[in-house]
Amino acid sequence: MPTIKTDALPIRSDEDVVRVRQKVRQWATELSFSLVEQTKVVTAASELARNTLVHGGGGEVTLETLAEGTKRKGLRLTFQDRGPGIPNIERAMTEGYTTGDGLGLGLSGARRLSSEFDIHSEVGVGTSVTITRWK
Amino acid sequence: MNHPKTGRVADLVARAQQDILDDWIRQQLGQTGRGAGRISEAALRQQSTRFLEAFARAINGGLIYDAKAPRWDDLREVLKELSLSRAAQNFSTSETATFIFSLKQPLFERLRKEAGGADVDADIWSISTLLDTLGLYTSEAYQKAREEVINRQQEEMLELSTPVVQLWDGIVALPLIGTLDSARTQVVMESLLNEVMARRAKFAIIDITGVPTVDTLVAQHLLKTVAAARLMGVECLISGIRPQFAQTIVHLGIDLTQVVTKASLADAFSLALKKLQMAVVRLEGRPGRS
Ligand SMILES: Nc1ncnc2c1ncn2[C@@H]1O[C@H](COP(=O)(O)OP(=O)(O)OP(=O)(O)O)[C@@H](O)[C@H]1O
Ligand SMILES: [Mg+2]
Fold first, then answer.
1. How far apart are CA B75 and CA B86, in angstroms?
2. CATH number of the structural domain A3-134
3. Ligand 2 centre and the CA of A21: distance in Å?
4. DSSP assignments along B25-70, one per residue
5. What is the CATH number of domain B165-275?
6. B245 within 8 A of B211, measured Cβ to Cβ
7. Looking at residue B181, what is its pLDDT?
8. What is the pLDDT of residues B9-45, one digit of tens each?
9. Are B142 and B83 spatial neighbours (Cβ–Cβ below 8 Å)?
């Protein structure tokens, strides 16, 4: 599957989270995502970027524009950190589970807002979450 | 480095300043990368004039071409201002540096013409190097200015602007404008509640039309504020949840059933009035007046 365009942004501060949302919105607009699709991918990005910052101690996001054939276009986002990792992914994905003082809805919500969702985590090594939103 | 004297070029610039200026401006107006009309001809003329005047002063007196010498301070100051204004107008680095580079052609042409066959290669080489240095300086100043612009925009974006608007006796509106990401958000919300209390409001309408993203953090801030207000005897209504957010809120699994939500601020206002046993009615028999 050819990648058309790619870029990366750091996630080290609240400002960076805002910047990630803006860039994702911009790319989704360029792909002519509908307003609802745009909102979904921006919201998922917001959740994952904040997890990277708050739980992962900072990291980065890679953005990719994908094309399958001539019609199908997608936006893939990969969030990576070298934080503490997640000991039990299934539990972390459970609605309402939080080790911080959040609502515990970010991860499960991001999965529902995306077409594809992939998470890898190793305790003491870090976490990587990849989502794709197809048009 | 061995810098030749500026005598011949200085004479030329002093003598033909107006002609060089005209050629130069014509040159810049003809360029496609001029920032596509982002700068008016009048502004361009003014910037070019200021530059050329400072340039003429700096080069005057047969001094050497050394852009770092104190004699060029004035000119560097002019360039710094130029970079600042262009950064604010979203010019690119190369568009900004081109301002300086585009002076080469009109200057060299005139130098050759007026030299009457004398060898001007050394002059051209020196002045070219000098303009390159100034162009580079402009790019650096531009980069710095641009970063400042971006930082400022970033701060403004993180800023949460929240006036407390009295709509009626006992009803206030809190139109949230901006992002709720910053660590300060909860503090802002708390001080808002104090303001609501001070106005003895019974109802507070939190309007989120101006909030660009509604995610779990935003929801959490809202829910905390609503709960805190309730403890103080103030009922909150949330308005301005746009349709696309209604969907994402469901996908995120956020439970807003404990909160009264309305599509628009007007709807929320009329509900609050109703709960205060009041209503807005049309006055019968008095058309055209209120
Ligand atoms: N990148 C990460 N590194 C380490 N732990 C993580 C990471 N992302 C999520 N987690 C863990 O998974 C839990 C659930 O994450 P989720 O995003 O669902 O909820 P939350 O961030 O705690 O709250 P909310 O997102 O609702 O504000 C977190 O509390 C945290 O323990
Ligand atoms: Mg989260």
1. 17
2. 3.30.565.10
3. 15
4. HHHHHH-TTTTTTSS-HHHHHHHHHHHHHHHHHHHTTS-B--TTSG
5. 3.30.750.24
6. no
7. 84
8. 888 888 888 999 999 998 888 875 555 467 788 888 9
9. yes
CB of A45 closer than 8 Å to CB of A77? yes
Q: Alpha-carbon distance B17 to B55, whole Å?
A: 10
pLDDT single digits (tens) B144-162: 887 777 766 655 567 777 8
Mean pLDDT of chain B, nearest integer? 84
Question: Taking the domains of chain A in order of start, what are their residue ranges?
Answer: 3-134
- Topology classification of domain B7-156: Globin-like (1.10.490)
Strand B260-262 vs strand B235-239: parallel, antiparallel, or unpaired? parallel
Neighbours of A45 (CB within 10 A): 31
Domain boundaries along the sequence of chain B: 7-156, 165-275
Ligand 2 centre and the CA of B242: distance in Å? 22
ipTM, two decimals, is 0.93
Confidence of residue B63 (pLDDT cuts 50, 70, 90): low
Average pLDDT value for residue range B253-266: 93
- Collect all residues with Cβ–Cβ distance below 8 Å to A48 and sequence separation of at least 6: A61, A77, A79, A106, A110, A129, A131
* Set of chain B residues whose Cβ sits within 8 Å of the Cβ of A18: 154, 157-158, 179, 181
Give the separation between CA B7 and CA B111, rounded to whole angstroms.
Answer: 12
Tell me which residue of B137, B125, B134, B138 sits closest to B9, measured CA to CA: B125
Q: What are the tokens at B50?
A: 């200021």
Among candidate residues B176, B191, B274, B184, the one with its CA nearest the CA of residue B229: B191
Query: φ and ψ at A113, to 5 degrees?
Result: -85, -5
Report the predicted TM-score, pTM, of the whole model to 2 decimal places: 0.67
Residue B1: is its pLDDT beyond 60? no
Ligand 1 pocket residues where CB is under 6 Å: A 47, 51-52, 55-56, 81, 83-84, 86, 92, 97-100, 102-108, 127; B 216-217
Distance CA A123, CA A78 (A): 19
The SS3 of residue A41 is: helix
Q: Is-contact A30 A23, C-beta < 8 A? A: no
| Best CA proximity match to A93, nearest among A47, A61, A62 | A47
B254/A50 CB distance under 8 A: no
Residue partners of B241: CB distance under 8 A and separation at least 6: B208, B214, B249, B261, B263
